[in-house]
Amino acid sequence: MSDILIVEDNPVNQKLIAFLLARAGYTYEVAENGLVALERLRAAPYHLVLMDMMMPVMNGFDAVRAIRADAKLRHLPVIALTANALKGEDEKCRAAGCDAYIAKPYSKEQVLKAIAKMLPASPAAGGGRGAGGGA
């Protein structure tokens, strides 16, 4: 089981967030769009989702709404990662069902702090949740 599902269509962004998570001691998997993310979430347990909001096939807004509509997934923490830092975007992400919002470009500290807030037993919070990566 992986700690975190990264949902991101951009290969460079996938590698950046994966590197950051691996260095912090998290295990992870990557899904390239919301549809693949839903398939993975329904097939295996995760502790948290980092969701890009603008993707082809199924965007993050629709994917988060589907997560919240699924009785088995509805309590899974979802952190929105979006390049759209316009006024009101935070509220739009939260209205879709995201628990937190981080605008790109983000800092390592922003991401790890948001994860630690959602996962109190996380490596970033001083707990031990496993190590390594794996995409």
Determine the CATH superfamily: Response regulator
Radius of gyration: 13 Å
Low-confidence stretches: 126-135
The share of residues in extended strands comes to 15-25%
CATH class: Alpha Beta
CATH architecture: 3-Layer(aba) Sandwich
What is the mean pLDDT?
82
Care to count the β-strands? 5
- Shape descriptor: globular
- Terminal residue distance: 12 Å
The CATH topology annotation reads as Rossmann fold
The helix count comes to 5
Number of domains: 1
Largest sheet: 5 strands, parallel
Percent of residues in helices: 25-40%
Structural class: alpha/beta
Major β-sheet strand ordering = 2-1-3-4-5
Structure description:
The chain is of the alpha/beta class. The chain has one domain (4-125): 3-Layer(aba) Sandwich (Rossmann fold). 39% of the residues lie in helices and 16% in strands. The protein is built from five helices and five strands; from the N terminus they run βαβαβαβαβα. The protein has helices spanning 11-23, 34-43, 60-69, 89-96, 108-118, and strands spanning 4-7, 28-31, 48-52, 78-82, 100-103. The protein has a five-stranded parallel β-sheet with strand order 2-1-3-4-5, sandwiched between helices. Helix 2 (34-43) runs parallel beside helix 3. The longest helix has 13 residues, at 11-23. The chain is globular, with a radius of gyration of 13 Å.
